[in-house]
Amino acid sequence: MPRDYYEILGVSKSADAAEIKKSYRKLAVKFHPDKNPGDPTAEENFKELGQAYEALSDVDKRAAYDRYGHDAFSGGGGGRGGFHDPSDIFSQVFGGAFGGGFEEFFGGGGSRKKSGKQRGSDLRYDLEITLEEAATGVEKELEIERNVPCGKCNSTGSKGSGGVNTCSTCGGRGVVGRQAGIFIQQSTCPECRGAGETVSDPCGDCRGAGRVERETRIKLRIPPGVDTGVRLRSTGNGDAGVRGGTAGDLYAFLHVEEHDVFEREGTTLFCDVPLPFSTAALGGELKVPTLDGQASIKIPTSTQGGTTFRVRDKGMPALSGGQKGDLNVTVQVEVPTKLNKEQQQKLRDFSESIGDHNSPVHQGFLEKAKRFFDL
Question: What range does the domain containing 267 cover?
Answer without folding.
Answer: 259-335
